[in-house]
Every structure is written in structure tokens, then in C-alpha cells.
């Protein structure tokens, strides 16, 4: 009971923090996710066993450049292309039983583009024509939370078919389908409050976010399983680390940004 209460209180504070910064002030939103990125990189660095602080410097330089300095499309497309390629290659790492793990260089590149790129594009999503689309980014948060919550509830209630038992034994196919269905229902209602993209586009965006968010969750679970740890950290009581809470979002964010680009939304 105490663990459930602790988990619930932490979850409420986390949700209020994210939604309030997105709603009240774009600068607060930017710097919150810059700080979250540093926290995730610290946890990633500790789990995979890479040393030095160069990865933090690279992240901060990229983040500052892409959020505040770069205004032309080509550098954004280059970073997006590299990030998407790295993420897709990581899916091979997730699903294939490789004889050798990732090398140190590959681990550094993974940290820079999978985590840093994820946070950069997550931060860039709500910006369009010098406007901050707060309801759009809040909607993306809500889709992830609805999917995760109902995947857990449905899986716990009726889940029997294991999704990926060697990596995440508790996740089920039934839970994943349930999470997707409730996310699509949520997208239907979100379309009424955020008209920048229409209903069909919201439904497509929900599919992209849920699908790649689930893969991001599994990918992070594989990193933890290799390292022999349950959580990436302990900063969030009852939830683990920052990476544990944001693993779905940071993997899905570049794909969501690309999808919105196809919708002619993101400039």
C-alpha cells in the first residue's frame, strides 16, 4: 500500500510538472526537457559503462544550437535523418541476438542521437511559425500516458500472451492492444481541442507514438537487462529513474516529429 501511494504521489507531481510547464511558459518547457535530457544521459552513461563528460558537452551543444540558433531546415533534416537511422539500427540490437554487444563508439553515438536527438525533437515538436503549440505537445504526453496506463491495466486484467518475455516478461500482447485502442479513443477527443492537425492525422500520430513508444520501452529494458539492473535510477520514488519514465517519449519523439513534418505542420 505504501509503495502504491508513493508511486501515485510521484506520478501526480510528474504529470503536473510536465503539463504546467508546457501550458504556462515555453522557456520553462525547454529548460525542463534540457535538464531531463542531462538526467537521462547520466543514467544511460552509468548503465552502459561509458566514462568521461564529453557526451554531456555534445548534448548541450546540440540542444542549444537546434533550439535557439539554427533556423534553416537542412541542418534539422540532417539531424533528424541521423537520429532516425540510429533508432532503427537500435531495433536490430533489440530483436537480434548479436554475438557482440555495442562498442564504446557505438554506445557514445547511441547516447548522442538516441537520447540527445530524442530530447531535441521532443522539444522542437510544439514550435511552428514562432508559435508554441502547447495543446499539441500536451496531447502527445497524454497519448503516451494513456497507452502506458491502459496497457498495464488491460495486461494485468486479461493479459495471457507474452509480448517479449526475454526482455520484458510482464508485458503482454493483450495489454499492448488495449493501450493502443484507448490511445486512439483519446486521439479522437484531442482532435476537438487541438485543430492544427485533423482527426485522421491525430489517429495516425497516435499509432506512431504508441508503436514506437512501446519499442522504446523494450529497448530501454534490454539495456537494463544487459546491465543487470531493475531501474535506471532512483530519483523518482516508486518509478525509478528519469530514463524509466521517459524511455517511450524519447524514442517516439523523432518519429512523431517526422510524422508531423509529413503533415506539413512542423516548420
Shape: globular
Residues in helix, %: over 70%
Strand content: under 5%
User: What's the number of helices?
Assistant: 9
Summarize the structure.
This protein is mainly α. Helix content is 76%, strand content 4%. The chain is built from nine helices and four strands; from the N terminus they run αααααββαββααα.
What does this structure look like?
This protein is mostly helical. Helix content is 76%, strand content 4%. The strands form two sheets. Strands 1-2 form a two-stranded antiparallel sheet. It has a two-stranded antiparallel ribbon with strand order 3-4. It is globular and about 45 Å long.
Task: Please describe the topology of this protein.
Blueprint: H1 2-24, H2 26-48, H3 54-69, H4 73-95, H5 104-124, E1 127-128, E2 131-132, H6 134-158, E3 162-164, E4 168-172, H7 173-193, H8 199-227, H9 242-262
Antiparallel strand pairs: 1-2, 3-4
Helix pairs in contact: 1-2, 1-6, 2-3, 2-5, 3-5, 4-5, 4-8, 4-9, 5-9, 6-7, 6-8, 7-8, 8-9
Short key terms for the protein model shown above:
single chain; 267 residues; mainly alpha; two-stranded antiparallel sheet; 9 helices
Amino acid at each position: 500500500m505504501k509503495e502504491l501511494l508513493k508511486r501515485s504521489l510521484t506520478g501526480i507531481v510528474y504529470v503536473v510538472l510536465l503539463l504546467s510547464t508546457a501550458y504556462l511558459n515555453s522557456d520553462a518547457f525547454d529548460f525542463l526537457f534540457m535538464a531531463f535530457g542531462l538526467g537521462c544521459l547520466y543514467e544511460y552513461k552509468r548503465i552502459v559503462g561509458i566514462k568521461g563528460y564529453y557526451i554531456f558537452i555534445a548534448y548541450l551543444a546540440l540542444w542549444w544550437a537546434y533550439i535557439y540558433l539554427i533556423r534553416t531546415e537542412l541542418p534539422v533534416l540532417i539531424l533528424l535523418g541521423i537520429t532516425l537511422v540510429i533508432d532503427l539500427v537500435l531495433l536490430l540490437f533489440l530483436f537480434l541476438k548479436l554475438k557482440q554487444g555495442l562498442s564504446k563508439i557505438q554506445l557514445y553515438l547511441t547516447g548522442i542521437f538516441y537520447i540527445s536527438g530524442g530530447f531535441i525533437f521532443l522539444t522542437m515538436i510544439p514550435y511552428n511559425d514562432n508559435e508554441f503549440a502547447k495543446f499539441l505537445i500536451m496531447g502527445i504526453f497524454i497519448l503516451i500516458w494513456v497507452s502506458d496506463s491502459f496497457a498495464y491495466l488491460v495486461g494485468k486484467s486479461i493479459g495471457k500472451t507474452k509480448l517479449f518475455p526475454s526482455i520484458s516478461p510482464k508485458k503482454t500482447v493483450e495489454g499492448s492492444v488495449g493501450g493502443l485502442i484507448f490511445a486512439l479513443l483519446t486521439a479522437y477527443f484531442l482532435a476537438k481541442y487541438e485543430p492544427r492537425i485533423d482527426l485522421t492525422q491525430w489517429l495516425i500520430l497516435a499509432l506512431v507514438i504508441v508503436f514506437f513508444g512501446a519499442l522504446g520501452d523494450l529497448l530501454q529494458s534490454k539495456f537494463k537487462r544487459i546491465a543487470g539492473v531493475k531501474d535506471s535510477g532512483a530519483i523518482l520514488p516508486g518509478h525509478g529513474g528519469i530514463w524509466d519514465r521517459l524511455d517511450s517519449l524519447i524514442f517516439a519523439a523523432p518519429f512523431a516529429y517526422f510524422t508531423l513534418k509529413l503533415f506539413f505542420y512542423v516548420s
